[in-house]
Amino acid sequence: MKKLILSLMLVVTGSITVQAQIWQQSSQWHDPFDMYAGPTLGCVASNLTVYDGKTMFGPYVGGFIQTYFNNHFGMSLEFAYTRQGVRDAWQTFSQEHQGGPYEYRLDYINTLYKLRYYPVKRFDTYVGLMTGVHINAKCTLDGQDTDIKKDLHKRSAHIIGGVGYELDNLMFEAYYGFPLQKLAKTARGKKALQGAREHVVMLTVGYRFKLY
Predict the structure, then answer these.
(1) Which of 34, 42, 106, 107 is the 20 to 30 A CA-CA neighbour of 202?
(2) Upstream peptide bond of 101 is cis (omega within 30 degrees of 0)
(3) Three-class SS string for the chain?
(4) How far apart are CA 174 and CA 167, in angstroms?
(5) Is the CB of residue 181 less than 8 Å from the CB of residue 199?
(6) Span 41-78, pLDDT tens digits
(7) Given phi > 0 = left and psi -120 to 50 = alpha, else beta, which region is 187?
């Protein structure tokens, strides 16, 4: 009798375990450590502090790699080209040209690190870091360009925070970048840019492919 009861208990326990595993698998939003990658396109809205300027809108072109730890946490690494700056800025960068309006165009290659949290299926919030390298930096007045790349710090850094939404293979994101440093490096740059920093808002859409 004891052997029969023990056998029944084992069968019931095994059945419950199997059903629990099936339920757990069916409720998974993401398979842990699956790897995805894909392109990203979007728009960057940027402005410089200190200046009385207008927001500049520029392109965002990049690609990403993403994985998930479980239903609620994941991370991604992204590389992107962006154009940032300001329009109609009333300041000065040279003795020859006073006033304005100036247009500052700053081109970057950025690396973005994002730690993601999924409170519910498809929707996530994230924080991370964006580091950039200048590949071009110019200011323009009356159609005349001045190269200012050497007057700026070569690298930039922003703390980023945003939200995302996944619709099958499409990924929609919006996030803000808070600057960690000032732009100007040289005495000439500091005279013109003073303590200016770059604030950026980015809207992107990506398409992901499963790698494995």
Answers:
(1) 34
(2) yes
(3) CHHHHHHHHHHHHHHHHHHHHHHHHHCCCCCCCCEEEEEEEEEEEEEECCCCCEEEEEEEEEEEEEEECCCCEEEEEEEEEEEEEEEEECCCCCCCCCCCCEEEEEEEEEEEEEEEEEEECCEEEEEEEEEEEEEEEEEEECCEEEECHHHECCEEEEEEEEEEEEECCEEEEEEEEEECCCCECCHHHHHHHCCCCEEEEEEEEEECEECC
(4) 15
(5) no
(6) 999 999 988 777 889 999 999 999 999 998 889 999 99
(7) alpha
> In which residue are the tokens 């396109």 written?
41
Pick from 86-95, 153-162, 172-181: least confident: 86-95
Residue with tokens 């099958």: 168
Range 158-181 average pLDDT: 94
56 within 8 A of 85, measured Cβ to Cβ: yes
Q: What are the tokens at 146?
A: 């001045």
